[in-house]
Design brief:
4 strands, elongated, name from scop, 6% strand, 13 helices
Length: 353
């Protein structure tokens, strides 16, 4: 109850945004997605309209050019196909452009993130009280005002354009058919273009509002942010990532210590153990690095690079690998074997044991 009454003052975290996105909650303006295709179609209407009109005339010519002698089924199907194709081609072109631009407008707003959560059945949607609350909410009132504004804008533009061109409309019957259709086409194209631009501006305002409401709806209280941080810190994924990061850092430090080793004892291919003896600091030799397989190979390569002696001794290398951790001193049971290796290395380099 305390969390529910806390004021949401914090911006949503990345995890919170991902959660609401999976639920299908995004900042999107349907008006902006609808107005963009209309603006493009209105701008292209003169060229597209020519294709559609020519297709209609071609369909009419094909429809009138039919012979009663050709009444068989295949001939009728061929004639229908030849008549319908010109009109269908223009309609498909218009529908294809509108669909592509509409998809682009949607993806530009919310990106590509398919989810079935918004269409999943939920019992609370059947509650009429919830529907009334949505209608009376700020979002519902804004949607109502937006619908009234759209109706008013479209009506005003249509009235203004009709009034400004009223004389030409009255003279349409006196014009040749081609000229009348051309004038009517230009009038309709201009009317649609003005309506679509007004709708586009309204869509931009709507998108700003939807974005503002979205950010406000997903805001979090301080307690929610703290709880999310606790959950994130203890999540299995984060713990696994932190463990992998610690292992990488430990390996990096271990490899850096190889250059300080007095010798690297190897299996010679399966194990590699780097040891150092410093009587001023330790009572016994210390294991600086150890590894198996690929790690052992890296230790050997680093030892060659740093000119650290490599001594093959399979039993000792295996025993050191299994019994001593990195940073620990060797056990007394391995003193004799390690001393012999160090004596050999120090004698060869002229260093005293």
């Amino acid at each position: 109850m305390a969390e529910q009454t806390q004021e949401r003052t914090e911006r949503a975290t990345h995890r919170r945004r991902q959660e609401v996105r999976r639920q299908g909650t995004v900042a999107r303006s349907a008006d902006l997605s609808s107005s963009l295709p209309l603006v493009l179609l209105a701008a292209m209407l003169p060229s597209i309209g020519t294709i559609v009109v020519n297709g209609v005339f071609q369909a009419l010519r094909n429809g009138l050019d039919i012979s009663g002698a050709k009444a068989s089924g295949p001939d009728i199907a061929h004639h229908f196909f030849k008549t319908a194709v010109p009109v269908v081609a223009g309609c498909v072109l218009i529908a294809g452009i509108a669909m592509l631009v509409g998809l682009f407008a949607n993806f530009a707003q919310v990106g590509i993130h398919p989810t079935l959560e918004p269409i999943a059945p939920k019992l609370e949607r059947l509650n009429p009280l919830n529907g009334i609350k949505r209608l009376l909410s700020r979002r519902g009132l804004f949607e109502t005002a937006k619908s009234v504004a759209k109706l008013g804008i479209v009506g005003w533009i249509a009235f203004h354009e009709t009034q400004a061109n009223w004389d030409e409309m009255l003279n349409l019957g006196l014009m040749p058919a081609a000229a009348g259709m051309a004038w009517l086409g230009r009038f309709v194209a201009l009317l649609i273009l003005k309506v679509s631009f007004a709708w586009l501006v309204l869509g931009a305002v709507d998108y700003w509002w939807q974005r503002r409401m979205y950010e406000k709806d997903i805001m979090m209280s301080i307690e929610e942010v703290k709880r999310e941080m606790r959950e994130t810190e203890t999540s299995p994924e984060l713990r696994a990532e932190m463990h992998r990061r610690r292992q990488r850092l430990a390996r990096a430090r271990m490899m850096a210590n190889v250059k300080h080793a007095d010798a690297v004892i190897t299996n010679p291919t399966e194990y590699a153990v780097a040891i150092k003896y410093d009587p001023k600091r330790f009572a016994a030799p210390v294991v600086l690095a150890k590894g198996r397989h690929l790690t052992a190979e890296r230790i050997r390569e680093e030892a060659k690079k740093q000119k650290v002696p490599i001594v093959p001794n399979p039993p000792l290398a295996r025993s050191l690998f299994e019994q001593v951790e990195v940073g620990d001193q060797i056990p007394s049971a391995l003193f004799q074997a390690v001393a012999e290796v160090l004596a050999f290395v120090f004698k060869k380099s002229g260093k005293k044991l």
